[in-house]
Design a protein that fits this description.
The structure is a single chain. The protein is α+β, with helices and mostly antiparallel strands. It has a single domain, classed as 3-Layer(aba) Sandwich (Rossmann fold). Helix content is about 30%, strand content about 20%. The chain has a 3-stranded antiparallel beta sheet, with no helix packed on it. The protein has a two-stranded parallel sheet with strand order 1-2. The chain starts with 10 loop residues before the first strand and ends with a strand.
Length: about 120
């Protein structure tokens, strides 16, 4: 468990390899509208993607938590930081921490509302 408070969620929606799906590409699609109003419906969503480039700007803007694994290029990393709410952190400082991760099972976690950045090593 985390050491910060969150509101209880009633539903978890997992979208695996879904980023390039047409339902997320157009902001007028029902899926995009639902994603923008998650807090009103107590829905948590996990979107699993191979690369952050496949996420639309609208989706990037509403990310509250980001979990990255090694392999993202500096350009892709900086673009994600710039287009998401993670831009409130120092991008260059985050990149310096992220780029040294070598273990493919170690994750780089950015919890935007909690103002926390964690590197979690696999056990």
């Amino acid at each position: 468990s985390y050491d910060w408070k969150t509101y209880p969620h009633r539903c978890l929606l997992i979208l695996d390899d879904f980023a390039s799906h047409p339902l997320l590409k157009n902001r007028e699609q029902d899926m995009c509208r639902i994603l923008k109003k998650l807090r009103h419906f107590n829905i948590s969503v996990v979107i699993c993607v191979q690369t952050a480039k496949s996420l639309s700007k609208d989706v990037k803007r509403i990310l509250t938590d980001i979990i990255l694994f090694p392999g993202l290029s500096e350009d892709d990393f900086m673009e994600l930081m710039k287009e998401s709410m993670a831009g409130k952190f120092d991008r260059h400082e985050l990149w310096e921490k992220y780029k040294v991760i070598q273990d493919p099972h170690t994750s780089f976690r950015i919890h935007i509302y909690a103002n926390k950045v964690q590197i979690v090593k696999s056990q």
